[in-house]
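Minutes, project check-in
Item: structure for the 133-residue chain
Input as provided by the requester:
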Amino acid sequence: MDGKSPDGDLLTMAEAAEALKVSQVTVARWLKQGRLPSYRLGPRAVRIRRADLAVVLSPASRSEPPPAASAAPAPDRLQVEPVEPMPEVVQQLETMWQAQALRERILARRRGVALSASAEEVERAREKRGKRL
């Protein structure tokens, strides 16, 4: 075999990044997003056809809309249905609001002085216990 596929050269991620003048991280992200087609050789090796590099290239400005956008008819009105919140999310939000209200009541009762952190309380309790022993 001469090392070339019938569809063109197969490139590594590093070679594809160099050809597109982008980082390997960008190529990996495009592969993960499905923006760039790839092929697996074994469990880890990934190859990209040189012909597929054109998939991610697009002109910087266009004088006319792309063919795919003009082929689909625009809907006159979008139909949007209201979404019911999930009961567990509503419960979590209510609990959070109750906790916030409790915190505000405690702060008002303490005249704006915040509660000490629990770590400080634990440390004080350990010191007291150590002195008793």
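Outcome recorded: The chain is about 45% helix and 10% strand.
No further action items on this chain.
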